[in-house]
Amino acid sequence: FSAWSAVVSAIERSAGAELRPCPAQRTLCRQTLRQTGKGRVSNTMPRHGIMNYFRYINAVSAARKSSPIRETTELLQRSPPTMISLASGMPNPDMFPFEMATFTIKDGLKITFGPDTMKRALQYSASSGVPELISWMKDLQKRIHNPPTVDYSPEEGQMDLCVTNGSQDGLNKLFEMLVIPGDIVLLDTPTYPSVLFMLRPLGCKIVGLSNDQHGLVPQSLSDTLSKWEPEDAKNPLSDIPKVLYTIPNGANPTGASMTAERKREIYQIARKYNLLIIEDDPYYFMQFEKPWAPSFLSLDVDGRVIRVDSFSKILSSGLRMGFLTGPKTLLDRVVLHMQVSSLHVSTFTQFMVLQLLQQWGQEGFLKHVDSVVQFYAKQRDTMQLSAERWLEGLVEWHVPSAGMFFWMKLKGVPDTYKLISEKAVEKEVLLIPGNSFMIDDSVPSPYVRAAFSLSTPEQIDQGFQRLAALIKEVA
Length: 475
Prior knowledge:
- By secondary structure, this protein is an alpha/beta fold.
- The protein is built from 15 helices and 15 strands.
- The protein is globular, with a radius of gyration of 24 Å.
């Protein structure tokens, strides 16, 4: 018990006012830990319309403390030039060999790092991200999603944002904050394999939900949760699921996109059972039809959505630039994890993106997004035409409305693994077999994933011609 008491005390000391419980909460929290001995910081206080984030944060995350060195670094970066710092251990940028840099953008725009900017770009920065970049992206989120939580207090789930080393780094840190052995994590299947690889070592039970061409089926979520009562969410001894993970647009691998109606229905189910929703949306800016469906973040009146965004598909995958948007209380725990792991996203990378976005402005950024959408829509149409030419009658598929992928069911082929991993390689055409995206990858799958992002129209057509010949050989 003394160890768990220390965890509670650690929260009180390090998490800030937004996580600090009142005396009544503190007593109940200690009682819960004494009763269960589980690694979950929890209590049984009624919500009264305010999310109880203690329920989701595991003991490891709750025990994290803010680094005084990191705090000093961030304080110095917010201070006026007259501030004299004898505290910082940052290296002197005058000793760095790089002086200036100029980047030429495809439209002819030039981004120049002068000596002063270069010194900042090569220096340590705040773990949550360069302040100017965070401010720019918050404004973008407000314009696009208009989150209801923008003006909430931290206790109510106030929207915040932090920069991550690509969206995958953000996802990994979210799961390590939320999940303990024995937890049930809900997700629609098939799903992004890296998420499965993140979750399996955490000792949780991954429960798959049904989906179709319009994404996660709300009835599947409702049916799965019907094993519990909504009141079980207030019971720390209950094994009721706490986290729902989903890819709402252009899902990898299915290419499915949720309708606005489905999102509203799923959000209401999440409210009923007090689920936290992880909205992984790397293909949001690759939706081929307007108006774009509202995001879960735009529906989030409770502060129960953590949105995961990425610049990888629209600016550069190699820059490793992602960002999380969600309740400040939870993102603060992610930032504490960053302080002792990656420290922060490359400051140089952040300044490259920041200066580009500042020169473009929101209108210029969205104009660039439109050009990206036009390219991938054309690629999608090309793959659709080639599929109709070569695969009609051999394969079933739905035309994706976002993303990069076709999800195809091969008729007469109960398991695509050997066909794709051996025979297709011999015929010099690469696809991903469907079992790679399943919770249990030993179960046969008749599906394959085909990506239209990188190949030329001629390569797509020839690839499907080779696939058709293979199917005819084995079917």
